[in-house]
């Protein structure tokens, strides 16, 4: 009995470790835009767009933010590995207790990073006087650009840093590889999925934030 349980725990741990390295790396890439959004849109608070060193650095940071942002929703496409893992594993117990929770947390953390990043940008734009319709349009543009980025990463195997190391190849792909019927269909579906999931997660996230603020307001001593 104890020996069988030990073997099950060992098998579960080994199965968990099979996905740990690439999941940790992909989550690291997904959290980069979130960290940048906190710095650029919450901490720096650029007051006026005048040409100076701080503004220049801010715009460079913003470009880096946009380049790395698709890494966050990219985790949604990593669910194809779950299908592969299920096919390779004949233990229903391992699938339910290891694979499903592992992929759920992985996807939740990665996509939450995307949602929070865009929320931070939307709040920044609102603080600059943008109207709600303009902010919604900006969010849609971001979803579209992210859908393109996800396609470039998943199907053409480009990474964020290839904009520097392989810029000519990246430009050629943007010009010639994205105009076919298949890429357009895939990117359109990805855009729709991102838009719907973002809206749902945004409502949940804002609701949680509002609830936390209400609790802190009702219990001011709890934050001391």
Automatic annotation (TrEMBL):
UniProt protein name: DUF1361 domain-containing protein
Pfam families attached to this UniProt entry: DUF1361
Record's keyword annotation contains RNA-binding: no
UniProt keyword terms in alphabetical order: Membrane, Transmembrane, Transmembrane helix
Stretches that traverse the bilayer: 22-44, 51-72, 92-119, 140-164, 184-201
Classification via InterPro entries: DUF1361
């Amino acid at each position: 009995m104890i020996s069988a349980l030990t073997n099950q725990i060992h098998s579960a741990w080994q199965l968990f470790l099979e996905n740990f390295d690439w999941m940790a790396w992909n989550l690291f890439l997904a959290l980069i835009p979130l960290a940048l959004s906190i710095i650029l849109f919450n901490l720096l608070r650029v007051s006026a767009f005048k040409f100076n060193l701080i503004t220049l650095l801010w715009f460079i940071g913003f470009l880096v933010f946009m380049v790395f942002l698709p890494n966050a929703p990219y985790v949604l496409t990593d669910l194809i590995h779950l299908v592969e893992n299920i096919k390779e594993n004949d233990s229903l117990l391992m699938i339910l207790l290891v694979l499903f929770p592992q992929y759920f947390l992985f996807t939740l953390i990665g996509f939450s990073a995307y949602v929070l990043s865009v929320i931070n940008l939307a709040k920044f734009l609102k603080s600059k006087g943008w109207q709600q319709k303009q902010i919604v349009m900006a969010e849609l543009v971001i979803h579209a650009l992210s859908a393109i980025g996800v396609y470039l990463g998943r199907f053409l195997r480009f990474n964020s840093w290839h904009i520097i190391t392989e810029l000519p190849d990246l430009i050629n792909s943007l010009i010639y590889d994205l105009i076919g019927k298949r890429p357009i269909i895939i990117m359109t579906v990805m855009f729709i999925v991102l838009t719907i999931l973002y809206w749902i997660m945004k409502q949940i996230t804002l609701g949680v934030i509002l609830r936390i603020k209400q609790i802190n307001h009702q219990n001011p001593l709890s934050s001391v």
